[in-house]
Amino acid sequence: MLTRLLLLFTVTIWGWSFVAAKICLDYLTPVELLGLRLLVGLPILLIIILVKGISFKFDKPLRLRMLAGSAILTVHFLLQVTGLKYTSATNTGWIIAIIPLVLVVLSCIFLKEKIGRREIFGIAVATIGIVLLISRGDISSIGGWLSSYGDWLILASAHTWAIYTVITRDISRARPPLIVTFVLMVPALFVTLIYMAFTSDWNRIVAVPAKPLVALLFLGVIALALAHWFWQEGISTIGAYKSGTFLYLEPIATTCLAVPLLNESFGIYTAVGGILVLAGVYWAQRRQRHSVERDC
């Protein structure tokens, strides 16, 4: 029971993280938000790893794949945080929920895994939901589609996360996922900090008000470091598949906070689109027992 409450807390935190990011983006650029979040969160994650006594040793065959995974992870973070700047936290939460289906397609293409009728039907249903979310119900308006710049970036980030998952799957099986997450995020931290050193106004960053500062601490300490720790503890206790079912609650947590706190709208097309996405993902995964990966 305690493990399930911990997992429920974790996915709620991850759902709220999109709202916290929106608050920060009113004061910080996407690159600044990413760099500062990693700067705050990774030292906490490192402490957890050291306390648990996890070794940093990686076999040589894994290192090249780790380099590729780190590069894709950096691109993924930048796509997602930039997309959040131009779309709602609510839409982000629902669109991100499609990641398991993207994984199914990529596994078919790159890992030669078969896709059955159940998966095809689930993908079709979820795709209709994505169309409703991006078009906001106005499917005939090309201009409306093109103006949904942020939604397209979030959708692209769902694909980059799926690619990252496929590339690093063997690494996460060979080494504890917590240390893999930390090591692959470190290059992203250095890249963003170097970029910030030449482009950012540090006087503006230091003068950030209390509200976005609290949101940034939430993103780094709780949503990045502690939540990943809790998630791995949950997986080790009840398994990846059962833990993964909690992810269906993440977009609901986003919506429940974004609507009252950010005054985001939640219309009929968002509701129907979100339901179709979750229904499609659920249907496609109903009889599968493999690991369900989560977007950071």
Give a quick rundown of the structure.
The protein is an all-alpha fold and 296 residues long. The chain contains 14 helices and no strands.
Describe the structure.
The protein has 296 residues and is mainly α. It has one domain. The chain is built from 14 helices and no strands. α1 (2-24) packs across α13. The longest helix has 29 residues, at 210-238.
Question: Characteristics of this structure?
Answer:
single chain, 296 residues, mainly alpha, globular
Count of discrete alpha- or pi-helical segments spanning 4 or more residues: 14
Strand content bin: under 5%
Q: What spatial form do the alpha-carbon principal axes imply?
A: globular
Counting helices, strands and paired strands, the structural category is mainly alpha
- Quick check: average pLDDT? 86
Give the topology string: H per helix, E per strand: HHHHHHHHHHHHHH
Ends distance: 25 Å
Multimeric state: single chain
Number-wise, the strands total 0
Largest sheet: none
- Overall number of domains: 1
- Helix % is over 70%
Low-confidence stretches: none
Radius of gyration (Å): 19 Å
Which helices and strands appear, and what pairs or packs with what?
Blueprint: H1 2-24, H2 30-52, H3 60-86, H4 89-96, H5 99-110, H6 117-135, H7 142-147, H8 149-174, H9 177-199, H10 202-206, H11 210-238, H12 240-244, H13 250-262, H14 268-285
